[in-house]
Amino acid sequence: MNIRQLQVFQAVCRELSFTGAAKSLYMTQPAVSHMISSLEAETGCVLFDRIARRIYLTEAGKTFLDKATRILELYGDLTSDACGAAHPAPIRLGSSITIANFLLPSLLREFAGLCSAPVRVEVDSARNIQKRLMDNEIDAALVEGVIPHKQLVKFPFSSFTLTVVCSPSYPLAKKGPVPIDALVREPLLLREKGSAIRDAFDSVLLLKHLSAEGAWTSVNSQALIEAAKNGLGVSILPEILIKNELAAGTLTQLCIEGFSLENTNYIVYHRDKYLTQPLQAFIGLVKQKEKTARTDGSSFP
User: Fold this and answer.
1) Contacts with 13 (C-beta within 8 Å, 6 or more apart), sequence order
2) What is the pLDDT along the chain (301 residues), one digit of tens a residue?
3) Correct CATH for 91-158+264-296 of 3.40.190.10, 1.10.3720.10, 1.20.1560.10, 3.40.50.300
């Protein structure tokens, strides 16, 4: 097996056509077919299904592509800049929305003082960010909640409490502890499905054989805060996000029977990912935050 075989295999996966791959690589179609057949013989796996003059990646082919892409990425780094010192490649960093609002800016400010490598950030729901990690579209990510993919390495570095809130004038605010089955009958102001906050809330309900539909559903937590302040319903949000509103009395916390939830924040990367020195430095910085908090009992941020 050699790099050229992997490059040809990657091109066939991209084009889903031997002819298209041959054209993009300036090769003949029989040469491409021969390389793929040799690769399949060498690996002992069928990488493509050939059905009705079309090709489709098999499950073995998908696994092989994932690993081949990482090898080719590393090979590209070596051939373009052996040390990576003259022009360090940007760190492609993903972040879930809550972490981007409160933790990421201070981390990147501190990182800028340690390393000159550029950082590109993409902010999305925790579920989408994890998918981008699996697809090698980003190098590492800061996400909260459950990490279901076994291929992802994760290290916890902080956590936050989820709180149920409403306007002080909302009818539930004048009552004592609220049963959770009564909560789900209220107009709920919820984050979108796929966000770690929504997934955590839905998981609690599932354990109690309940479910909820949002009167509002939003990717923007601030919109939910404003809706709650105006008495339009009840929201479930990170306490760190609404501490000013709670202090000012524009929102009040509800006591929900059987509801106690904390989301853990993680630094995550693919186990097969080549970690450049700048990326290692960033991961190390995040890990150090967790160690410091554990040692002195403080929280981050």
Assistant:
1) 57, 61, 65
2) 888 899 999 999 988 999 998 988 888 899 899 989 999 999 898 998 888 888 898 999 899 998 888 888 877 766 655 444 555 678 999 999 889 988 899 999 999 988 888 999 999 988 899 999 998 899 999 999 889 888 999 999 998 899 999 999 999 998 889 999 999 999 999 999 888 899 889 999 999 999 988 999 998 899 999 999 999 999 999 998 899 999 999 999 999 988 888 889 999 999 888 888 899 999 999 998 776 555 444 444 5
3) 3.40.190.10
Token duo for residue 287: 């890990």
Question: Torsion over CA of 193, 195, 198 and 202, rounded to 10 degrees?
Answer: 70
Intrachain domains 3-85 and 91-158+264-296 with the same fold: no
CA 280 to CA 101: how far, in whole Å?
23
